[in-house]
Structure formats: structure tokens, C-alpha cells
Amino acid sequence: MKLAPFRYAAPTSVAEAVALLGSCDAKALSGGQSLMPILAFRLSAPELIVDLKHVRGLDRITIDERGVILGAKVRWHDIETDARLLSAHPLLAEAIKHVAHYQIRNRGTVGGSLAHADPAAEMPGIAASCDAILTIVGSKGERKVAAADFFEGALQTCLEADELITEILLPFWPQARRWGFQEFARRRGDFALAGVAAYYDLDAQGHASNTHIGVIGASDRPRRLATAESALNGMAVTPGAIAAAAAAASAEVDPPSDIHAPADYRRALVATLVERALTHAAR
Ligand SMILES: Cc1cc2nc3c(=O)[nH]c(=O)nc-3n(C[C@H](O)[C@H](O)[C@H](O)COP(=O)(O)OP(=O)(O)OC[C@H]3O[C@@H](n4cnc5c(N)ncnc54)[C@H](O)[C@@H]3O)c2cc1C
Fold it and tell me: Which of 12, 128, 158, 201 is the most exposed place for a label (fewest CB within 10 A)?
């Protein structure tokens, strides 16, 4: 199908883009990898497209004592070619390798993926698993939103119509942290049937602490699994403790059944992926 007609604007600043978004039924365009198919299927027919291409200052990757800050226009390709991230945030670097195919990774952006909020997408999964903070700018000013509060359901977020994501902060990553990322897709580059991002720190006794286990594709939004995390916290990370956390994770998710996989399969897959991610972390 052809796209419905729309007006087009290419602002150069966040303030200008926000004013345009608030002026009528408008949509921001970043990499276009989700929005263009939506327009082509006429699932959305905005009056105005606000292209972020020329908006300045949104394409930086900053690494400092706060952690890793990704501007909204940072592309998957920028992440996978920034060698600093291999130590500054290895979990992010690993997860982004699984996003889509080469051509899409050249265009798709952090802000577009977060705003689109696909429950199986890697960046929202990393945001939720790592307690990320999003910076959002709208006509009422700037606000900071925790990833846990940002995602409200499948393709649903707390963004208002005139708001833009400008950046996301992934809090500081200690070098000794243990981590693992695992996902399963039918073909490499496809959206995952399910995925798991996990990490923990080791306390003075060598036991797991600050355990974070997040899932994608196994709920209507990316989320952490509190019961599975508690099952590992305070434990020596043995195969038995890992198996207990994996079983808890499987019981904690409420996955959908769809044309790709039934819920029972996804629940079993989550257990396998948690086990693999934590086993990778322990090594
Ligand atoms: C064949 C195919 C396979 C894919 N596989 C995967 C995959 O395996 N994993 C994965 O994670 N993704 C996958 N994607 C999606 C891809 O990663 C896109 O990058 C992502 O969904 C959207 O990013 P974008 O920059 O293209 O956003 P756009 O398509 O430009 O925008 C998406 C939505 O976000 C809004 N938006 C964009 N920027 C902002 C902003 N700064 N603030 C507020 N709202 C904003 C737009 O208005 C729109 O509603 C795939 C896409 C395709 C076409």
C-alpha cells in the first residue's frame, strides 16, 4: 500500500521538533525502520511527519562516572562499532549484536526503538534490565522517567504526543560485574521469541548480590523478574542455584501465545535462556 499523504518538516533543534509535534496530529521520524512500515500499512496516518535527521546533539555516546548515555539518534551501528562499550557496558554491546540485519542496524535508533516499545526488542530489554533512566522533553519541559515506568504495554509507553526521548542513561557498570545475554530467534536478526539479560555482582563472600534478570518476548513489555533475582541473591552461583533461579523465572513470566510460539514453549524457553545467561555470567 502507498502511504497516506502527510506534510513533512525537518527541524534542527529539540525545541522546534517538540513545537511541531504539539501543533497537530504529528509523528517523529528517526530511523524509519518501524514507522515507515506502519505508515505503509496505513496503521497510522499522521498529518505531519517531523523528521529528526537534522536535530542537533542527539547522536552522541557519552561514557562518564554516571554510566553510558546514549543520545536518541544513536544507531545500532554506532553502538556495535564503539569499542569503548565493550568494557563500559558489555551487556549492551552483546545485546545489540542481535538486533535485526545489517541494513536495519545502519538506520534504526535507540530513541525509535524505545518509543516503539516492541516487547521483544533488545534495547527496551536492556533499558528495563539495567534500571535505565530516559530523558524526555515536551512542551511542559524535561522529565526523567525510569524504564520500569516508561513501558506500559505492547507498543505502549508513557510518552505524550508532543514529547521526544532525547537520551537514555544506563547506570555505571563495575568492571567486576558478571553478566550474560541470551536470546532465541528462528533466524539470526529476526525478533527474538524470548531473550534474557542478566547480571549480578559478587559480595565479600563471593555470593551473588544486586542480581538483575530481565526478559524480552515473554510479556507485554520488557521487565525484570523479581522472584528469580531473589532466588539468586545471597547464594553461591552454583549450577543448583542457577537452576533454581531459572525455574523461578519460568514461573514468573506470563508469555503470550501467538503465531510464532505458544505460551508454554516461551515459558520453557525463558528457563533455558536464564540458565544459559547465568552460566555464562558465572564463567
Ligand atoms: C525486518 C526488521 C527486523 C527488525 N528486527 C529487530 C530486532 O530483531 N530487534 C529490534 O530491537 N528491532 C528490530 N527491528 C526494529 C528496528 O530495530 C528499529 O530500529 C526500531 O524499531 C525503531 O527505530 P527507528 O529509529 O527506525 O524508529 P522509527 O521507525 O523512526 O520510529 C519508531 C517510533 O518511534 C517514534 N520515535 C522515533 N524517535 C523518537 C524519539 N526520539 N522520541 C520519541 N518518539 C520517537 C516514532 O514516532 C515512531 O512512533 C526490526 C525492523 C525491521 C524492519
Answer: 12
Structural domain that includes position 191:
178-282
From the CA of 77, how far away is ligand 1's center (Å)? 14
For ligand 1, atom 9: residue with the closest CA? 99
Please state the pTM of the whole predicted model.
0.97
Q: Whose CA is nearest to atom 6 of ligand 1?
A: 100
Q: Are residues 153 and 237 in the same domain?
A: no
Atom 23 of ligand 1, nearest CA residue: 112
**What's the distance, CA 112 to chain centroid?**
10
The residue whose CA has the least distance to atom 28 of ligand 1 is 32
* Burial label, 104 (beta-carbon count in 10 A; 0-12, 13-18, 19+): middle
* Residue 92 C-alpha from the chain's centroid: 9
d(CA 106, CA 95): 16
Q: What is the pLDDT of residues 236-283, one digit of tens each?
A: 999 999 999 999 999 999 998 999 999 999 999 999 999 999 999 999
Q: What percent of the chain has pLDDT over 70?
A: 100
Residue 114 · residue 101 · CB < 8 Å: no
- What residues are in contact with ligand 1 under a 6 Å CB criterion? 27-35, 72, 99-100, 104, 107-109, 111-113, 115-116, 121-123, 159, 164-165, 191
Q: Select from 153, 171, 189 the last residue of a domain.
A: 171
Tell me the pLDDT tens digit for each residue of 217-242. Answer: 999 999 999 999 999 999 999 999 99
Write the pLDDT tens digit of every residue in 17-35: 999 999 999 999 999 999 9
